[in-house]
Write a structure and sequence with these properties.
Length: about 200
């Protein structure tokens, strides 16, 4: 007997429900080509690939929400793909002198703090069901737009050796710090509440 028929889920919807995960996997695979293209100073190719990755990011999120195609695997894979693409992009752009080292270190420091905090939570408090805050989502979007803007500028001016977008760089840096501080304050407060409840029991 057809399980899909028993559950009432259309066969076509069942087949297509993995599309968001496939798009996320494609974005994950695009990270290395983007980094290599930047390293070889082929900024036009890097820009096209990064834009394609950003498009898959928007599309997989839309499909997952619109049709209810969310999955635990996708929830884990999506932020990983974003981080690999962004961290790789920032490191490569810093290597070619297009992004200040200080900004890249801020981006890396925020991610290290969050990952360290998540591991500590897992070890000390148990499973962590974290959802990115609105500020975190806006920070990720700002970083993606910033990387695309830098690549677009370099594609138009291949000889550029320094970042021409100093204002946006400062804005992204400030937003990165604010997002990191927000994570520490919010999850630190939750951890303290849990510890107090456990001690009261």
């Amino acid at each position: 007997m057809d399980v899909r028929a028993m559950t009432g889920v259309p066969a076509q919807q069942t087949r297509w429900r993995h599309l968001p995960n496939l798009l996320t996997a494609a974005r994950l695979l695009l990270a290395l080509p983007v980094v290599l293209a930047i390293g070889y100073r082929d900024f036009t190719t890097a820009m096209v690939l990064a834009a394609l990755a950003a498009l898959t990011d928007a599309l997989d999120g839309f499909l997952a929400r619109r049709f209810g195609w969310q999955s635990r695997f996708g929830a884990l894979l999506d932020p990983l793909a974003d981080k690999l693409l962004l961290v790789g992009g920032f490191l490569a752009l810093t290597h070619v002198g297009a992004v200040p080292l200080a900004l890249t270190l801020l981006v890396l420091a925020r991610d290290v703090v969050i990952v360290t905090g998540a591991l500590a939570w897992r070890l000390l408090l148990g499973p962590l069901a974290a959802r990115p805050s609105l500020l975190s989502k806006f920070n990720t979007l700002a970083q993606i737009v910033f990387v695309l803007a830098v690549l677009l500028t370099l594609a138009w001016a291949p000889a550029a050796q320094a970042l021409p977008l100093r204002g946006p760089a400062w804005a992204v840096g400030a937003l990165t710090v604010a997002s990191g501080v927000d994570y520490v304050l919010r999850w630190g407060a939750r951890a303290r509440r849990i510890w107090r409840l456990r001690r009261a029991i």
